[in-house]
Design brief:
The structure holds two protein chains of two kinds. Chain A is α/β, with parallel strands linked by helices. Chain A has 14 helices and twelve strands. In chain A, a hairpin with a 5-residue loop joins strand 10 and strand 11. In chain A, 51% of the residues are buried. By secondary structure, chain B is mainly alpha-helical. Helices cover 79% and strands 1% of the residues of chain B. Chain B has a two-stranded antiparallel sheet with strand order 1-2. In chain B, helix 5 packs across helix 7. The interface between A and B is medium-sized, with 33 and 34 residues.
Chain lengths: 336, 329
């Protein structure tokens, strides 16, 4: 009997120490899951330390870090400074993505069509119902638009993509702000809801004369007809990595407490207007400081050596200036 | 010999008592095991209801009974406004249309299989029905999304809209524009999904009709249709209704396939070709990223589905009881 007890005890000790030394646990947003798991894989190969990331949704990530069941939480919608203060959390942006409007109109090629925020909001409000509406024609004098009804497609599931998209529409259109507002799930005036980015892209590619919004990676990988957007500076821009990074560089990160910057509608002539960062949440004074430090090591590594992997998956790395700021935040806020 | 009979006499009463008590113990154990299994159902059900009520309480307090007839679903409004009318309407309408299609077709297949089908065709059709039941619902959803939806939107719906254009009531029910994702498309998928429930149960109960009854009917010159109508169906009525109820329960609660193809819009439209939503589709879509009152509202929706299903099934039981009484008289 004693013999068995000893074995069990030894096993427990071994299990707990190995978990202690190697595994960083995180949970939250689904949007960055592919890149976090790719980074974790490469990091494990390099250092032998593993990372266990559960993509349970931004809301779940916030709840888990508040309950201290994970080392870090991840969210697409950042927490406000007072909320961070209340829970003793530090927050910073980790990697970015962009959201692009996509359409399916016969004869219209990727990048040919241009929208501005006001017109896009009118389409999603149901005020513009036909493709040859004067507002769309005015923005696109050289594109041949059919006199067909617009099928509006949006996400049916609560999502960070929807949050950023509706946040942009709220900034661009007072009408949208008062009637619908922003959120991960909103009261859509018109349109059909499809599940996930893949649902929206599937719907768009099947339905003629439709419009939707998806993450840039989905538009690119599924070869959807994306559109250009007129940004805050009044310049039409195409969805490119340079335009996404311009939006992040032009954002005023230094003055935002807890990096609470929503990257939509940022200033700058080259900025893509619906860019979105995904954020990491960690306790400033964590119970398990060793795990905390391990996580910081991982994030530092990801900023330094994870750029190429991010690019391959069509994510956008944080600009260098922002990374320097974040390093300072770590030194100042996370207790070791 | 004498010695041996002594042993038997000695051993006899001893063994008998022991054996009897062993039997009794077995009996009692068996009784309690089965009883506990039966009671556990009630406990689990009670636990589910209780946790649903606890989770739904904040929303119940906030919205009260107006939750039932509010059509707005605005979780991000300030303050949030949540109403169940849209999803409730969608749940009932899709289930109703699904049953409207599935009951006659399901019974038709069952009657053909048991009464008319040549022997060699029986197995393939029977297997196909069983297979239909085995397909995961996500596959139905994908098929509906990629194959059925486009067909309905491009061919079937424009045809129906054209036929009923200008007809009162029906014109509004079959109104355009055609859509890949709509209440009708979801209902059609549901009909296909519940078909095997109705068919296989009907086939089983049709087989219980004593051949002598049918033979007697045929003997006095009844046609197959008359035998089915006046002998087979009345004899198996209870079983058929049981199958229909099972199918209805499935239709009311089906989630994944419906979420794919219904269009997830909380607005109520008079047209069945418009997008809508059901209670389970709404919960499946929004639960993961919800919190606070929004999540509580979704749990309240779940509780509502529970109550709705209960009433529908209770109603079916009641109907059955009255039918039986009538038959008795």
């Amino acid at each position: 009997m004693n013999f068995i007890k000893t074995i069990v005890a030894a096993g427990l000790v071994a299990a707990s120490t190995s978990a202690f030394a190697a595994d960083i646990t995180g949970a939250g947003a689904t949007f960055p899951f592919p890149i976090y798991s790719k980074w974790a894989d490469a990091y494990k190969k390099e250092t032998g330390n593993g990372l266990n990331y559960q993509s349970i949704g931004s809301g779940g990530g916030i709840k888990q870090i508040q309950a201290k069941t994970v080392t870090f939480g991840a969210t697409d919608a950042p927490l406000k400074a007072e909320q961070l203060e209340k829970d003793g959390l530090a927050q910073w942006p980790m990697v970015m993505g962009a959201i692009v409007p996509v359409v399916n109109i016969e004869g219209v090629k990727p990048g040919e069509l241009v929208f501005d925020g006001e017109t896009l909001a009118s389409v999603y409000l149901g005020k513009i119902t036909k493709w040859d509406d004067p507002a769309i024609k005015k923005l696109n004098p050289n594109v041949k638009l059919p006199s067909e009804a617009i099928t509006v497609v949006r996400r049916s599931d609560g999502s960070g993509t929807t949050f950023n998209f509706t946040n942009y529409l709220s900034k661009a259109s007072a009408d949208w702000k008062s009637k619908v507002g922003e959120g991960t799930a909103v009261e859509w005036p018109v349109g059909v809801g499809a599940k996930g980015n893949e649902g929206v892209s599937g719907n768009i590619s099947q339905t003629k004369n439709s419009i939707g919004y998806v993450e840039y990676a989905y538009a690119k990988q599924n070869k959807l007809t994306y559109t250009g957007l007129v940004n805050k500076a009044g310049k039409p821009v195409q969805p490119t990595v340079e335009a996404f990074q311009a939006a992040a560089s032009n954002a005023d990160w230094a003055k935002a407490p807890g990096y609470y910057v929503i990257l939509t509608d940022q200033p700058g002539e080259k900025s893509w207007p619906i860019t979105a960062a995904t954020f990491i949440l960690m306790h400033k004074d964590a119970t398990d400081k060793a795990a905390s430090q391990e996580a910081i090591k991982f994030f530092r590594w990801a900023f330094k050596s994870g750029g190429k992997a991010a690019e391959e998956l069509d994510y956008i790395s944080m600009p260098e200036g922002v990374v320097t700021l974040i390093e300072k935040t770590w030194a100042a806020e996370i207790k070791s | 010999m004498a010695v041996q009979s002594d042993i038997v006499d000695d051993a006899g009463p001893y063994d008998r008592a022991k054996a009897l008590s062993a039997f009794k113990l077995g009996d009692v154990t068996f009784y309690w095991i089965t009883r506990l299994s039966a009671i556990s159902v009630l406990l689990i059900l009670g636990g589910i209801i209780l946790s649903l009520i606890v989770g739904a309480f904040p929303a119940m307090k906030e919205f009260g009974f107006s939750f039932l007839w509010t059509q707005r679903w605005a979780p991000s409004a300030d303050p949030p406004v949540l109403g169940a009318l849209g999803p409730m309407y969608g749940t009932l309408v899709t289930s109703f249309i699904a049953m409207l299609i599935a009951i006659p077709v399901g019974l038709g297949i069952a009657i053909f299989l048991t009464e008319l089908c040549p022997q060699w065709l029986r197995r393939p059709i029977g297997m196909a029905v069983e297979l239909l039941a085995g397909i995961p619902s996500i596959i139905y959803g994908m098929w509906g999304f990629f194959v059925l939806g486009p067909f309905l939107a491009n061919t079937f719906q424009p045809f129906m809209i054209k036929i009923f254009d200008g007809v009162p009531v029906l014109g509004a029910i079959f109104a355009g524009p055609p859509s890949y994702l709509s209440l009708f498309n979801a209902a059609l998928i549901l009909a296909i999904m519940v078909l095997p429930f109705i068919t296989s149960i009907s086939v089983d109960v049709f087989k219980t009709v004593p051949p002598v009854l049918k033979e007697a009917a045929y003997g006095v010159g009844c046609t197959t249709w008359e035998v089915v109508r006046s002998v087979v169906i009345p004899y198996t009525r209870v079983g058929i209704i049981g199958g229909v109820m099972l199918a209805l329960g499935r239709a009311l609660g089906e989630t994944m396939a419906v979420t794919f193809i219904i269009g997830n819009s909380f607005r109520i439209s008079s047209s069945i070709f418009a997008p809508g939503t059901t209670i389970s589709a709404a919960i499946a879509s929004e639960f993961a990223e919800s919190d606070g009152l929004h999540q509580s509202g979704l749990i309240l929706l779940g509780l509502l589905l529970f109550v709705l299903t209960f009433f529908v099934l209770a109603g079916a039981r009641l109907m059955l009881m009255r039918l039986e009484q009538k038959a008795g008289n």
